[in-house]
Amino acid sequence: MAIVTLLTDSGESDHYVAAIKAKIISVNPGIRIEDISHKIGPSDIGHAAFVLRSVFRDFPKGTVHLVGVDACGNRGDVPIALQLEDHFFVGCDNGLFGLITEKSHQQLAELNTISPIQTTFPERDIFAPAAAKLASGMSITNLGRPMPAFKRMIDRQVKATKKQIVGTVVRVDETGNLITNIPKDVFDLLSANKGYTIQFGGEKFRKIQTHYNQSEQGECCIVFNSLGLLEIGIYKGNASQLLGLEYDSVVNITFDEP
């Protein structure tokens, strides 16, 4: 069954998401629609990219991902459809898609170039028909004008040396857990046969747990989460509030001298 996922900043109190879905099933009633999230902050492409990057590979290859975040973009941004890692994406060329993978695109086309329309609701009027047609088997090359490249932005990078890793908080989740951009494979490589100190704010820790419940209620716990990223939490509490950390806060790991 063809799958179209939806990721938007439309919220859930208005008609927008329903209208997008209605347009998709009007093209092909057999399409299965899966909601990723509609609670992305308005035009927050950083959050949207984090969510999409975290989950799109869990769907079958060939899935179409409609992204309606900052859907109109800035002046000069255009609607696009592209294929990345054997998945299809439809949305605005506002830099978001360049944050979900470093791999090159397989196909890319500018939408709304065949019988172009003017609209204040591109998610319904441009993205949804294109996503439905892709999910129904139409080629990207039949949807619009080929493009050589799409917009890429520079994401926050981890700085890693033999002495330390410097990362940042890239997401504060709904429960206040602090997800960093420090990957487990980098930590494992640099920490082999070494002690280490994890520092953030005024706190220092020398242990990483494998599960939150290895801490007592109200205590700080540090784990590598299911994404393979270092995560800081308070067991049954809100780490962001209690530790005073937020998006972009710095997290350091310093390795002991041998």
Molecular structure report:
This protein is an alpha+beta fold and 258 residues long. Helix content is 19%, strand content 30%. The chain folds into two domains: 3-146, S-adenosyl-l-methionine hydroxide adenosyltransferase, N-terminal (Rossmann fold, 3-Layer(aba) Sandwich), CATH 3.40.50; 159-255, Elongation Factor Tu (Ef-tu), domain 3. A hairpin with a 5-residue loop joins strand 9 (164-172) and strand 10 (178-183). Helix 1 (16-27) runs parallel beside helix 3 (122-135). The protein starts with a strand and ends with a strand. The mean pLDDT is 96. Residues 4-144 form the S-adenosyl-l-methionine hydroxide adenosyltransferase N-terminal domain. One of its GO terms (molecular function) is transferase activity.
Question: Which tags fit this structure?
Answer:
Elongation Factor Tu (Ef-tu), domain 3; S-adenosyl-L-methionine; eight-stranded antiparallel beta sheet; alpha+beta; 2 domains; elongated; S-adenosyl-l-methionine hydroxide adenosyltransferase; SAM_OH_AdoTrfase_C_sf; SAM_OH_AdoTrfase; 258 residues; SAM_HAT_N; 5 helices; Rossmann fold; seven-stranded mixed beta sheet
Cα-to-Cα separation, first versus last residue: 56 Å
Categorize the overall geometry. Answer: elongated
How many structural domains does the protein architecture include?
2
CATH homologous superfamily designation of the largest domain: S-adenosyl-l-methionine hydroxide adenosyltransferase, N-terminal
Low-confidence stretches: none
For the residues shown, what is the average pLDDT?
96
Binned strand content: 25-35%
What is the CATH architecture descriptor of the largest domain? 3-Layer(aba) Sandwich
CATH topology of the largest domain: Rossmann fold
Order of helices and strands: EHEHEEEEHEEEEHEEEEHE
* Proportion in helices: 10-25%
Instruction: Please outline the major beta sheet.
Output: 8 strands, antiparallel
